[in-house]
Amino acid sequence: MSLGAGLAFSSVGHGTGFDIAGRGAADPAAVIRAVRLIGSATGRSPQLHLLPEAPS
């Protein structure tokens, strides 16, 4: 996660997952946690309640 210059940015540290695309095997936990972290770090989280809880 990077903060500065008026924006917050996060990116994944892995590939695109073409090998599991369309199989229902992807785990969204990391991206959900990243979005929540950026929202809370920037104080811009008015719609975070719309995100599902990250799976364990």
Summed up:
Helices cover 25% and strands 11% of the residues. By secondary structure, it is α+β, with helices and mostly antiparallel strands. Strands 1-2 form a two-stranded antiparallel ribbon.
Salient structural properties:
56 residues, alpha+beta, two-stranded antiparallel sheet, 1 helix
Explain this structure.
- With 56 residues, the protein is of the alpha+beta class.
- The protein contains one helix and two strands, in the order E-E-H.
- It has one helix at 29-42; strands at 2-4, 7-9.
- The chain has a two-stranded antiparallel ribbon.
- The radius of gyration is 13 Å and the shape is flat.
- The protein starts with a strand and ends in a 14-residue tail after the last helix.
- The mean pLDDT is 77.
